[in-house]
Amino acid sequence: MSGTLALLGGAEWTEGVTLDARLAAESSATEVVVLPTATAYENPGARVEAARRAFEPLGLSVTVLPVYKRAQAMEPEWADLAAGASWLYLTGGSPMHLRSVLKDTPLLDALIGASTALVFNLVLFPVHPRTRHRFPDLLHDAPPNLTLIEPVSYLTMLAMVRDALLVITDSGGVQKEAFLLGTPCVTVRDTTEWPETVQAGANTLVAADPEALHQAACTMMGLEFEMKDNPFGTGTASLAIAGFTRDHYL
Fold first, then answer.
1. How far is CA 35 from CA 39, 42, 67, 111, in A?
2. Rounded distance between C-alpha atoms, residue 223 and residue 15, angstroms
3. For the segment 29-38, what is each residue's pLDDT rounded down to a tens digit?
């Protein structure tokens, strides 16, 4: 899937909501696939009609993915429809019902796959000067989903790592920074200075092979890992050093 996954969170297609018009203006889609599962007990037909009134004036046709019960979410045809959609819209309603219907189903797998593919449309690559020098055609040959930017400051880089869904790197320092900032990491190397990050499930090592790298990125994308005990300490080393120096040398 390459398109738009729209998750507004409720009150969609009401007066004052301009998101749909903005997305339509930026999208080349001609069809919106609407999944009204969350409104199964709230007159889903009315929500579908509201979708038609909102999208048809924008030049978009509406196709309904009629999944209201768990058995329907198990049907391959609906998963195929979701996977092939260029614009997929989940309505607001009951998140509990949505979860109970979609959990562990082919349709949910298709939705996750679609969202992962869309995230790969937003890739930032701060290019080191040596990289630009070695690969002079990089700027011209980069795919449209890859945004090449100039090197950034250390603090800006930390902010980018913190806010990313995934970091792909061969840098030793970035691996550890991603771990401490709670961002999953794929390291394009066969060894790491920080095996603790791999043992914690926050980092994975992968060969410099496009297919292997893609699989690792899909697996790690958006992963949430729990750091019960930070193997790198509690961040109080400087206080301990200062206290020892004061007590023994001052």
1. 9, 14, 7, 11
2. 36
3. 788 888 999 8
Closest CA to 203 of 160, 159, 157, 170: 170
Distance CA 135, CA 113 (A): 32
Helices 154-163/172-180 angle, 10° precision: 60
CATH class of 152-220: alpha beta
Determine if the pTM surpasses 0.85.
no
pLDDT tens string 177-226: 999 999 999 999 999 999 999 999 999 999 988 888 888 888 888 787 77
Q: What is the distance of C-alpha 75 from the center of its chain? A: 26
Half-sphere exposure (Cβ direction) of 177: Cα atoms closer than 13 Å: 19
The CATH topology of domain 4-119 is: Rossmann fold (3.40.50)
HSE at residue 16, side-chain half, CA atoms within 13 A, is 1
Distance CA 167, CA 124 (A): 10
Greatest alpha-carbon pair distance for the chain in Å reads 78
Q: Degrees (nearest 5) of the Cα angle 216, 186, 112?
A: 45
Query: Which amino acid, residue 117?
Result: A
Task: Give the start-to-end residue ranges of the domains of the chain.
Answer: 4-119, 152-220
Residue 28: count of CB within 10 angstroms of its CB: 10
Element (DSSP H or E) covering residue 9: none
The candidate with the shortest Cα–Cα distance to 100, out of 70, 125, 120, is 70
